[in-house]
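Same chain as my last thread, 81 residues:
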Amino acid sequence: MQKIKGSKDFGYHLKMLRLEAGPGVAELTRYMQLLGCDTTRECWVKIEAGKHNVSPKQLWAFKKALNISYDKIFEFVEEKT
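reply #2:
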């Protein structure tokens, strides 16, 4: 399965989206697990730090958990170009 390469910029953007939506890392990962995504709090902390790649399932569960669009998740790409 392909993964999105982790980076500090992408991780920081995901963290800001999470903080904007309100849940803590533990709450977010619990909800993602309920959606069938095999992830942990430690894994998500690494993703937000840009030290871990993101799987499509993690990205999908993140989107569902925060009730945001893929456009919102990837808007940082447009800001960087």
